[in-house]
Amino acid sequence: MLLALHSFIPLVGNPFIDRLNEGGPLFMYTTLFLLIVILALLIRGFVKPTARDKTVTLVSSISLFVLVWGFLGQMLGFISAFDAVQAAGDVSPAMLAGGIKVAILSPLFGMIVFLIARIGIIILNILKK
């Protein structure tokens, strides 16, 4: 039992995991899952040249979805943050800045995944010759 518990200790206090949870688990973990899918598809495109056209199309579609998904998370985060500000009335600038920081995490992660996918697509297109 201690061995199993010990294997999860590095996840506690991990800045990456903390940011995933802080940015809204639904949007952040979905984006992380789609990043893994995109990486798997890109690897398939590198290994299997006959599937490159289909892979480029699929990765392109998923990358656009991830980008929009991140901004959807931001908009929903802003709505809930502004609801909290409205309910509280007087909010400190530090609390407002913290809320804005959290709202920016989801689209930032979506943009990073989008860029990774687009770089992979560019490389696949170069190799397509």
UniProtKB/TrEMBL annotation:
Subcellular location as annotated: Cell membrane; Membrane
Bilayer topology term: Multi-pass membrane protein
GO biological process: protein transport
Keywords: Cell membrane, Membrane, Protein transport, Transmembrane, Transmembrane helix, Transport
Top-rank lineage group of the source organism: Bacteria
Domain MotA/TolQ/ExbB proton channel, residue spans: 55-118
CC per GO annotation: plasma membrane
InterPro entries listed in its UniProt record: MotA_ExbB_proton_chnl
Transmembrane segments: 26-47, 59-82, 102-127
Family: Belongs to the exbB/tolQ family.
Record-given protein name: MotA/TolQ/ExbB proton channel family protein
Source lineage: Bacteria, Pseudomonadati, Bacteroidota, Flavobacteriia, Flavobacteriales
